[in-house]
């Protein structure tokens, strides 16, 4: 497929021959202009009679405007140029009005009028998101899509009637070179012969030749908790040339189109997170050789990647890339949850597939895995390829070596360490040295294809007993996944929950002392997660966890202490181990997990003694994958709490408060499950020690 831009032509032909051709082509118009010059106003419809108010130009473009916009040559040809331009504009404007092109979904999307985009930040759908004057030909373009369309019509008419000798050596600043995607769409809609639009766009031609776009794929890099910015995964577009489209392993013939945040690396993490979430930074479009970008995920972060070919035609691919040319240097606010790497991919596809309205089908928060699932549901994914990370390749070698050791071959601890060490084992899916190709190690794909995962939101209703009181729990979690959830589609041992709340309704008896309130907020989680990197596997990095939430706790400092709602923040770090037998031929870790973590936590609330307590201790536990539908876990927490000194003789300032808990979940299907949770607090000074609950969970 040719990579030459649609509107680029060769301007090196003989000037004399072009001038002669131009004169012959315009002679009939010049004669007609001389004969009919007195009647032009009466015969040709004026723009004001063709343009509906508010649909096209805000102010009608007159003959004088056109005369001023066209470059005069000689008096004998100026009238013919103007007349030809007027005729073209009159015809085009009639077509635009007849087909309501100014309000066409594709045209508005090319201008960033995202009419169907949901947003928590209340962006105005009646104006473009772009406020840069350079993105528009009309001064009213940001607010009036019709005015921008009419300005493009005038620019095209000027380009068509201008004689070649009047044109500059390069048309880089012409509308055709600046906005090739808009021009291509409009000329197709109006039936304009693109060969008549003579423009030399050297920068665009060079850029398109470099990319040589034939095919697009979406690359999904799995969640990576060791980098908070990547905790929710990442997506980018792979731009394939004809060579890499024919052989996907030839990655040096492909490019990566990555939409990311243009943040300040010197900002503190809290500042960085707030700015990235609230639009305090702009987005940045990066176009890099694909091997460099892929290596960052496979080798640096050690994240598995899934690549899905998009079911787009070569013409649609080229139109998307031409639109990227128009937008790649724009300053657009980046919103981590709504306008991000994943939403930009949907927006680009929406430009060439206006009937599908992909962006409008997602909730306010756009998650990369949701985008992949949506594209699959819309039948836009034609093929899927799994590329294991370096740690997965090493783990596959370790699995094979341990399996061989069971067959009476010796595997020493040093041999195992050499295999699982990233420093000593450079095995990778990317060829060493030139890094030009993907190597197929014959590893069975891990069970982390995001298409297979459960929906990220979950609602639950549960019935339970706390001491002598029965209760009903109603809860909602907006994301993401805990260790009892169905594991398919997620990184192994993945645990990250965000924005979850549970309200509890008690059956109370007023005749008893220390009865709970009838309705209480049991828990509100902002963020809670753990990153497990077992020390006996090829995974690198620490095992750690963190939480920020409001939760109900039992105060063990006073006799018969009641539960209270407190704000809580904690951090834990330690070790984990993967146990059992991994899936044969894969790079998966053994399926069972045990851990021991050192923990620290601070809590504050009006109900507890002194209004605060800080604690340190140990958390140990195991997660057990019984089969694909049934999982269990057990945990023992050993916190030692300190409230500060107190003059109250009945109050303790410090104490142990062990808590043991177990959980079991059975998956009915991908979208439904039942769960049992039970806990016991080993503390004699609290009012209620035990709690057990059976709940139904619906993922959506």
Textual characterization of the structure:
The chain is α+β, with helices and mostly antiparallel strands and 700 residues long. Helices cover 28% and strands 28% of the residues. It is built from 18 helices and 20 strands. The strands form two sheets. It has a twelve-stranded antiparallel β-barrel. It has a seven-stranded antiparallel beta sheet with strand order 6-4-3-2-1-5-7. β18 and β19 form a beta hairpin. α14 packs across α15 (341-352). Residues 1-76 have low confidence and may be disordered.
Précis, in short:
It contains 18 helices and 20 strands. It has helices at residues 15-36, 40-43, 47-50, 63-69, 75-99, 105-110, 145-161, 175-178, 180-190, 202-211, 242-246, 269-278, 290-300, 314-327, 341-352, 368-377, 390-406, 413-420, and strands at residues 215-221, 234-240, 254-261, 281-289, 305-310, 333-334, 381-387, 458-466, 469-481, 495-506, 519-531, 543-554, 563-579, 592-604, 612-625, 630-642, 654-656, 659-669, 672-681, 690-699. The radius of gyration is 33 Å and the shape is globular.
Helical run tally? 18
Backbone shape? globular
The whole-number mean of residue pLDDT values reads 85
Rg result: 33 Å
- For the largest sheet, list the strands in their spatial order: 8-9-10-11-12-13-14-15-16-18-19-20
Name some characteristics of this structure.
700 residues, twelve-stranded antiparallel barrel, seven-stranded antiparallel β-sheet, globular, alpha+beta, single chain, 18 helices
How does the SSE layout of this entry go?
Blueprint lengths: L14 H22 L3 H4 L3 H4 L12 H7 L5 H25 L5 H6 L34 H17 L13 H4 L1 H11 L11 H10 L3 E7 L12 E7 L1 H5 L7 E8 L7 H10 L2 E9 H11 L4 E6 L3 H14 L5 E2 L6 H12 L15 H10 L3 E7 L2 H17 L6 H8 L37 E9 L2 E13 L13 E12 L12 E13 L11 E12 L8 E17 L12 E13 L7 E14 L4 E13 L11 E3 L2 E11 L2 E10 L8 E10 L1
Antiparallel strand pairs: 1-2, 1-5, 2-3, 3-4, 4-6, 5-7, 8-9, 8-20, 9-10, 10-11, 11-12, 12-13, 13-14, 14-15, 15-16, 16-17, 16-18, 18-19, 19-20
